[in-house]
Amino acid sequence: MTTKILTIKDKEKYNSKIGHPVQTWEWGDFQISQGHTVYRFGVFDDQDKIKSAYSISFHKIPKTKFSIGTILRGPEITDETIRKVTEIAQKENAIFVKFEPNIIYKNFDNSNNETILSSKPQFSHLEKSPKVAFYPHSYLVDLTKTENQLLESMHSKTRYNIRVANRYGVETKEETNDKGFEIYLKLLLDTTKRQGFYLHTEKYHRDLWKTLKDTGMIHIMLASYQKQVLSAFMIFNIKDKLFYPYGASLDINRQVMAPTLLMWEVIKLGQKLKCKSFDMWGCLGPRAKENENGYGFHRFKQSYGGQLVEYVGTYDLVINPLLYKAYNSVDKIRWKILRFKASILRK
Description:
The chain has 347 residues and is α+β, with helices and mostly antiparallel strands. The protein is built from ten helices and 16 strands.
């Protein structure tokens, strides 16, 4: 196998091998708009046929010459990947490169029994990362089922709440345009402030929309009651997969169950788009506790009857061991400050 850096003329070829939105060529363009350096690679066989592809994004550490690399939801890690990434990382003065392969390690049944589906990466160069980018678990909904089968897979209370929303006359629609985005963004920022969790900046979300809105990858879904939007989701789809990265809801008229109905309409949208699976973009693990941070979102996603899976994990390719230790120590302090600021905003 030979790894080559790709250029814009290879965009279609590259995207043909990508299985997650954050690895698409277009997402790389968004990363570039944020000031990051992006390389796209293609892995070719001896007949020059592309077999896999991935992108790596380098994020500069302010006021230094150093950077951090990420390959999120990429392909399997191989010796060739390690060789090529090390070469580029040294050129970019990277302290380390974070890998999160888009490979499922195991799944769980309703009794939390595990089925191992693949092996975890085994490389002496890699450290188990102290910090993840994506949640290691997610729920995957099988969109090849019929609507009746999907409803039967849901929690009974979820089916009931869908009927409640319909009785209240909650209206749902797709509004994938600038107007729909502005409605969605306002709800997202309000939700973030109210619930006190950290979110990317408003500029980040505006740049994301500006870069991706004409790609066909994004869908804005809205749910309204008495002409007021109560819930808004941003949905991604590529090939035969649907993804739920962002959602927001107002803290009023909760009795009409607008988010519950909206998620059901998203599932039906996925079927209309001929998607085979719906990845809910992260959740807690199989033994989630009610007092855990994020349990409300976990329970909401769980109620739609998807398959709970665990990905192979997050690993760091350490380029500069001394700075790697220092960076992780400083980063822990930084995140404590961010969470504290978020909690203050909530109050």
